[in-house]
Amino acid sequence: MEIIAVSKSVRIAPRKIRLIADSIRKQTLEDALVSLPLLNKRGASTLNKTLKSAIANAKNNHNIHKDVLFIKSIEINEAPFYKRFRPSTRGRVHPYKRRGTHIKIVLADNKSEKSNSKPEIKEQIRNPKIEKETK
To answer: Would you tell me how many other CB atoms lie within 10 Å of the CB of residue 12?
Structure first.
């Protein structure tokens, strides 16, 4: 079962939050909860809030204890940005963008992943004649 938590329109650039997300992506849930408050980055607190929200969703909505959960995926996407301008010399302006971020954390429990995971075998048979005709 997948548990999802989303934070939208966070006023931090996606590039800055992706650095933090990459550092906790392969960690266990307990390690991520311990390491996020210790990081000296501004986006770490926002990512920590979203992760705690996902754990609360699992507990309250699905009655799943946090010991059986793991981080399945973390998506960091761009939100709409604000266009701003900085005054420059000789009456000119320099435009810049105030970027925002959408954060989506997906947790899954170990029990459902083991029972539902069946190896999928995908075979693709390529026929060069068909490929040339479609192009």
So the answer is: 20
**pLDDT tens profile 80-113:** 999 999 999 999 999 999 999 999 999 999 876 5
Would you say the pTM of this structure is higher than 0.70? yes
Domain range 2-117, CATH architecture: Alpha-Beta Complex (3.90)
Domain residue limits, the chain = 2-117
Q: Alpha helix locations (H) across 29-84? A: 29-35, 44-62
Which two three-digit tokens encode residue 94?
């320099």
Q: Rounded to whole angstroms, how far apart are CA atoms 2 and 61?
A: 11
Strand partners, 73: 106
